[in-house]
Amino acid sequence: xxxxxxxxxxxxxxxxxxxxxxxxxxxxxxxxxxxxxxxxxxxxxxxxxxxxxxxxxxxxxxxxxxxxxxxxxxxxxxxxxxxxxxxxxxxxxxxxxxxxxxxxxxxxxxxxxxxxxxxxxxxxxxxxxxxxxxxxxxxxxxxxxxxxxxxxxxxxxxxxxxxxxxxxxxxxxxxxxxxxxxxxxxxxxxxxxxxxxxxxxxxxxxxxxxxxxxxxxxxxxxxxxxxxxxxxxxxxxxxxxxxxxxxxxxxxxxxxxxxxxxxxxxxxxxxxxxxxxxxxxxxxxxxxxxxxxxxxxxxxxxxxxxxxxxxxxxxxxxxxxxxxxxxxxxxxxxxxxxxxxxxxxxxxxxxxxxx
Length: 355
Ligand SMILES: *[C@@H]1O[C@H](CO)[C@@H](O)[C@H](O)[C@H]1NC(C)=O
Ligand SMILES: *[C@@H]1O[C@H](CO)[C@@H](O)[C@H](O)[C@H]1NC(C)=O
Ligand SMILES: *[C@@H]1O[C@H](CO)[C@@H](O)[C@H](O)[C@H]1NC(C)=O
Ligand SMILES: *[C@@H]1O[C@H](CO)[C@@H](O)[C@H](O)[C@H]1NC(C)=O
Hints:
This protein is an alpha+beta fold. The protein has helices at about 5-20, 30-35, 50-60, 115, 330-340, 345-350; strands at about 40, 75-80, 100-105, 120-125, 135-145, 150-160, 180-185, 190-195, 210, 220, 230-240, 245-250, 250-255, 260-265, 275-285, 300-310, 320. Helices cover about 15% and strands about 30% of the residues.
């Protein structure tokens, strides 16, 4: 048998297994039932386009906003006609509402960070229900044709916990005691990733597909997929919180156009039972917190079909107990600082039989 006659069947097998394992289409509602997410909701859209001020009123009235307000960039939001009505996202999910207006976000020329462009709001699924320990969001996003990605920017995901202002915006790395966030980011050339503010427990920063930034968020599997501009893209993001809170068995998973793109287990998303999943974190802007991230022209994204699924069951995967090194409180570290220097002296005294 020649080498080439062996090669072809092998290549064929490799190709077929890639196709069946990685290329399989899974509609969002099928995924929801696979993960036993029994309750669901969707965010209301108006039936006609609206001015900016009517858009703001609509969002405040219908989207269950944290503190009853749009956090940033209210003037950059508007319900407009769908510019990509004829360019749907490929995949298997049904598009229940493809004819109505879509939500446009504007990023003004030169803008970067949530202070100068884009928009940020936290839509609580049910403000009087803190029992969600698993949540999944699905939405469609379109970028203007020829979108200049520059270095990157934030995209919507999920968040939770009683602190609605932490876990984003360059706030300190979280210890998981009052919030988590799992947004998406686009990076150079439209590369996608999950961008999380979660504790970096049990050495996850050393894993190949994780990039930790000591001050900000944690990038999970950068470049696992790439966004396309000038058409709709569908994102489905699942978060299952770790349980109990001192075991790193949390799980996040992402499907791009209904094809599996990212899964990451062994995460500690929270260190306290007060942190549960709250809802959609529509947070999007260029950057980054300096001008090198700024958009070189005014540009837009568009959103439609926000749907949420949830359950009161946390992750049931296995995970390790969070090692103590991650959990040093400031009191503990001060105590250690006070006593550690004396240990050599104590050892010498002991050896000399003084103690
Ligand atoms: C774990 O949870 C999944 C849903 O996320 C469920 O399908 C599975 O049956 C559960 N396994 C056990 C052992 O409970
Ligand atoms: C919100 O949650 C509360 C407590 O679980 C429940 O009684 C109520 O029906 C929920 N409201 C909606 C609109 O789902
Ligand atoms: C980050 O932590 C430092 C030191 O604990 C504190 O001084 C600073 O105010 C914190 N910054 C933010 C944005 O929370
Ligand atoms: C964007 O702003 C920069 C700096 O003000 C300016 O030089 C550039 O011409 C602007 N671009 C467009 C497309 O207006």
